[in-house]
Design a protein that fits this description.
Blueprint lengths: L5 H10 L2 E2 L16 E2 L12 H5 L10 H18 L7 E5 L2 H11 L7 E9 L5 E6 L10 E5 L7 E2 L2 E5 L6 H4 L13
Parallel strand pairs: 4-7
Antiparallel strand pairs: 1-4, 2-8, 3-8, 4-5, 5-6
């Protein structure tokens, strides 16, 4: 089996319904942005950090998405306030796939046979929400994107958090942030 390419994953994002934790269509963003990301080594998948403690989570390894969702909703706004960030403008979330992909080479992520929780969900035909995960070296490393049940709690799954601007979750097409497709001139 060949590991997926970035193109394969972008095709999947376009061909299937993926939503951000903000409830909007997930469109990977590869433009410039500022975000705060936990950068602990992937070789320490249960790293204790002040953010993990502030979220009220005892561990990050094997935590199901439902527990993460509860922790982020309960403690995320206070974490933003403690950092001097407006919780109406910033949100604590799992690292977005596109941010993970951009940062993976610098931090050596995607080299372990372990999944990382990514922000967002795949919506199935039966209207079930499956949590986005990825980064498993066995299935494509940084380019790997998959989805699991929100109750999945395998020890092969770790949580990495980020603080991002809420505007990241807005539908970019409506804001004109995505470039218009280039049209070729007719041949003469």
């Amino acid at each position: 089996m060949c590991p997926p390419t970035l193109r394969d994953n972008l095709d999947a994002f376009l061909g299937h319904l993926f939503l951000t934790s903000g409830g909007t269509r997930y469109v990977p963003w590869f433009g410039p942005e500022v975000l705060l990301v936990e950068t602990f080594p992937e070789s320490k998948p249960n790293a204790a950090t002040p953010l993990l403690t502030a979220l009220g989570l005892e561990r990050r390894l094997g935590v199901p998405r439902l527990a993460i969702e509860h922790a982020v909703l309960a403690h995320g706004p206070d974490i933003c306030l403690s950092l001097g960030l407006d919780p109406m403008e910033f949100v604590v979330t799992c690292i977005p796939f596109d941010a993970y992909l951009r940062l993976a080479p610098q931090w050596g992520w995607g080299a372990q046979e372990r999944w990382t929780h990514f922000d967002g969900y795949q919506v199935t035909r039966q209207l079930h929400f499956w949590a986005l995960v990825g980064g498993n070296a066995r299935y494509g490393g940084p380019h790997d994107v998959a989805s699991v049940a929100r109750t999945y709690d395998s020890e092969r799954l770790t949580a990495r958090f980020a603080i991002v601007r809420r505007r990241r979750f807005r539908v970019r097409e409506a804001q004109g942030e995505l470039p218009l497709p280039v049209q070729e001139a007719p041949h003469s």
